[in-house]
Write a structure and sequence with these properties.
Blueprint lengths: L1 E2 L10 E14 L2 H13 L4 H24 L4 E13 L2 E13 L1
Parallel strand pairs: 1-3
Antiparallel strand pairs: 2-4, 3-4
Amino acid sequence: MMLLTTDIYPGKEYEPLGLVKGSTIQSKNALKDMGQGFKTIVGGELKSYTKMMGEARTIATERMIQEAEALGADAVIAVRYNSASVMQGAAEIMAYGTAIKFQ
């Protein structure tokens, strides 16, 4: 499945099938969260959060692809990601785009 951030698929004729999306809500356990809180005092990358968000994007992307495949799509264009805090230490990641079928 080809995923593009552009609003068009160059060089191909296609039919849009509709919006597809995937999401997940991820959190870290309390002990790791406390450790990351200490890290904010001295600064630097919060590596466990970086890892968590990367895993969440992968899950959301896979769910979006599954939704596109269920529609019979060949690709997804205009792919975007969005994140939102749903509570302290937990974030929702959403991947969304337009599923297309080549003609």
